[in-house]
Design goal:
Blueprint (H helix, E strand, L loop, with lengths): L1 H10 L6 E6 L4 H12 L2 E8 L2 E7 L7
Antiparallel strand pairs: 1-3, 2-3
Length: 65
């Protein structure tokens, strides 16, 4: 679900905009970086904070997939 929500939010953003994603789903650690690579967004930061992960994504120049 975090990847789907991130995809929808990124679709409404301009290239170069920053999105912060908070997720407690352990699969997100693998899914979100794969999505960013496939959609040509930059994953700038991924940190674990207590029971969740925080990701910082820079929207790429391509249209979201």
């Amino acid at each position: 679900m975090p990847v789907l929500k991130a995809r929808r939010q990124l679709a409404n953003m301009q290239p170069g905009d920053t999105l912060t994603v908070l997720a407690d789903d352990p699969a997100t650690v693998h899914d979100l970086p794969a999505f960013c690579k496939q959609a040509q967004h930059s994953l700038k930061m991924a940190v674990e904070i207590e029971n969740y992960w925080q990701f910082t994504i820079i929207r790429g120049d391509q249209d979201p997939q």
